[in-house]
Design goal:
Helices cover 76% and strands 0% of the residues. By secondary structure, it is mostly helical. The protein has one domain. The longest helix has 16 residues. It is globular.
Length: 84
């Protein structure tokens, strides 16, 4: 994973503090009901990060050395760590 540990920890803590398991379940249901969404779990991951971590922070910190594919890998791990 290319995301630096400090940035990973910041995002993990922000996500864990911003969304509950029940809110996540409701979001998953809503996203799965939308027929236009091709990859519901990816959409959920990105909706969660947009609700939890300021986009300016991601641009100023993560996008200096990583791209969306690296960020998505980190988000997969964060979601598993926080909600599974």
């Amino acid at each position: 994973m290319k995301i630096e540990r400090e940035h990973y920890d910041f995002m993990r803590d922000a996500i864990a503090g911003a969304i509950s398991k029940s809110d996540l379940d409701a979001l998953r249901q809503a996203v799965r009901a939308d027929q236009r969404v091709k990859d519901p779990e990816k959409r959920v991951r990105w909706d969660v990060v947009y609700r939890s971590v300021p986009s300016a922070w991601i641009c100023d910190n993560v996008y200096k050395y990583a791209d969306d594919s690296h960020l998505d890998t980190a988000l997969k791990r964060i979601m598993a760590e926080c909600f599974d």
